[in-house]
Specification:
This protein has 210 residues and is mainly α. It has two domains: 9-121, Orthogonal Bundle (Rna Polymerase Sigma Factor, Chain: A), CATH 1.10.1740.10; 129-210, Orthogonal Bundle (Arc Repressor Mutant, subunit A), CATH 1.10.10. Helix content is 70%, strand content 0%. It contains nine helices and no strands. It is globular and about 50 Å long.
């Protein structure tokens, strides 16, 4: 099994996107080629390049740094295990990694151990030293609704939203990363936001009125 450079589970600092340039794509493809022949050092380089982005994505979904680090580690382990399945014709390496992380984060939120951890964190009724936050459950439900709504978007729109919201990148950076015209990215983002608004507004409006 590959040895990841994260024994302390601290994510690397998020690095500036390489811009989706042909040179960056070739560099990523070369890293995957080296991984496919068993070069573990290539995985370390890939982790250093995209670990910060994946951690930010995971943190936005699961809402907990400890769980986000778990997703981060598992994403790159799964990347290593599935290195032979990567197909550059189906998308760039960052998008592939984000897909792995998103699926792992969703699986984690649905898992029984995670549900048990949530219950353990809830203060016992009558014994809590602080008032129970009445909207904690609603916040969790809303987060899950957002994740579900994102999954319902077309892939191109979802990538644009994830890179903007989860990765914190500008539309110019997203256009460079995905190799698309800026106008196309703006259009995809606008369409995605309209779809998300239609789906999530019934959940958000009651909270605004409360």
């Amino acid at each position: 099994m590959a040895r990841l450079p994260m024994s302390d589970l601290r994510p690397p600092r998020r690095r500036t996107l390489a811009g989706g340039s042909p040179e960056a794509e070739r560099a990523d493809s070369e890293l995957l080629r080296r991984m496919q022949v068993g070069d573990e050092s290539a995985l370390e380089v890939l982790y250093g390049r995209y670990g910060g982005l994946i951690f930010t994505l995971a943190l936005r979904i699961v809402g907990d740094p400890e769980l986000a680090r778990e997703v981060l580690q598992d994403t790159f382990l799964r990347c290593w295990d599935g290195r032979d399945a990567y197909d550059s014709a189906r998308g760039r390496v960052p998008g592939w990694l984000m897909g792995i992380a998103r699926n792992r984060a969703i699986d984690l939120l649905r898992s029984r151990p995670h549900q048990a951890r949530l219950r353990e964190r809830e203060p016992l009724v009558g014994l809590a030293s602080e008032p129970v936050q009445p909207d904690a459950a609603d916040s969790i439900m809303l987060r899950r609704a957002v994740v579900s709504a994102l999954r319902g978007l077309p892939i191109a729109q979802r990538q644009a939203i994830e890179l903007a919201y989860y990765g914190g990148h500008t539309q110019v950076e997203i256009a460079r990363e995905l190799g698309e015209p800026l106008g196309t990215i703006k259009s995809r983002t606008r369409q995605a936001m309209e779809l998300l608004r239609d789906v999530l507004w019934p959940l958000i409006e009651p909270r605004r009125e409360a």
